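ok trying this again, last paste got cut off
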Amino acid sequence: MKQGGLELVYIPKQMIIRKKRFSLLIAFLTVAAVVFAQHVGSNSPYSRYGYGLLSNPAFGASEAMGGISYGLRRSQQVNPGNPASYSEIDSLTFIFDMGVSGHLAHMDDGTNRRDFYNGNLDYIAIQFPLFRNVGAGIGLLPYSKMGYEYGASRSLPDSHYIEAYRGSGGLSRVFSGFAWEPIQNLSVGANFSYLFGNFSRSSVVTPTSASALVSETKYMYTIRDLKYDFGIQFTYPLGKSRELTFGAVYSPEINTKADVNPSKMLYTGDPYQNPWLSPSQVLATDTLRKANFQLPHTFGAGVTYRRGNLLVGLDGTYQLWKNTKYPDLLDDMAEKDRFNNSYRFNAGLEYVKDPMSPNFFHRIRFRGGVSYENSYTNFNINEPVSGKDVGMGTFSEYGVNVGVGLPFLDYMSGRTSMLNIGFGYTRQQPDADFMISQDMFKISINVNINELWFFKRQFN
């Protein structure tokens, strides 16, 4: 209708709701695009080998419980660690999950000590119902991280130089998953992921003589492939408010090929400190076509026990890295020596005094957990002064996590969203001399938004 020369247009409430959902979807895609473009932060020299440091697909609350995921089945949390969990969502719920973190890494080789700081947008995901007893999840999260810069001064009878190693990159994956609960207490699911990443590794030799040229040897490659994860969960009721949930996940081996681009160039200065520099001479450049890369078979199993206000869980993961394919020229190691079969254990718990209490402090969730993992890679070890090769070594990683979940109730819809805050400490303990020990302190913040999206209104 028209009023005072202006035309007033009636907009139905359902159209406003649809616009709201569309805006949130646009926001999700925008943040995901930022994640695509970002460099995943890492400053560990152990990320130089293989595919870098591997990431555990544990979001917010489960990360604070030591990283458990296989038996974790909750309607208000996205859990890509076991895709069978997506069916535990009611027909009116939409979940948005996003996490960020900050890291302090302290490194010590017995003589020198150094600290590094990093910050990451860790993951972003959504979960929603499709049909009765069918749920879905979509998101983006890291698979591995590579980032390092270290070196040493070297001396020969007729020259002195500084040798530096630098690298960046990593693998990320965009996933979409589905879960179906065909009968009560049994759920099956699958994640279908697009795995992608760029890697750059270089060694730079800088002579102390002002007139000498700087030499850089560099390797670059890009990986693109599909990844699949298949999961199952079974819940066994023990009484009115107690239950056990068993979960298992299998991820098949990935066989992929990628072109590796090695080059050796001379510069008048350090190409990292002076990125505008063009090489004064290209000594060698070539492409290794369709080099073989593999990612291993992965098996995981876990169990959680839930009793009213308490949840306790235990997970185990085994990865068959031994003798998987990887180009020799990237690390000068033999196939039989490069990788170790990897195993990881996670245990954690969550306690809340009364999740239904009107008292905010009684609804706060307290979490804690521990983890252990052996490294999937071995490392060439050099004596620091002479640079002489003294063999191989590896490390074990120990972790402790604590955290809280702060609930926020939407009184209009009755939905509870969570702000999860977590603190983590990990220790990378080497098993040989001349290796670097690393202590990492992490603070993470996760926003878990629980929306009432699929309610059919009876009036406008």
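PB: full thing came through this time. The radius of gyration is 25 Å.
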